[in-house]
Amino acid sequence: MTPRLRKYLELERLMLILEDEGDRGADALRDLMDPLWYSLSDEERRLLDQRTIGRTRRAP
Known about the structure:
Elements: H1 3-20, H2 25-39, H3 42-50
Helix pairs in contact: 1-2
């Protein structure tokens, strides 16, 4: 895994947490991630597009 892909995944995880909590910051973070998405290689984007994202419930 490249450092750039690792950073993207870390930001995506945070975005999903914010989204699950109903935080409008999730949309802002998603928009800010666009340049990082486009800087990934075609292969990295293809891998991300093919995956299934599972969600677990966080403890209160």
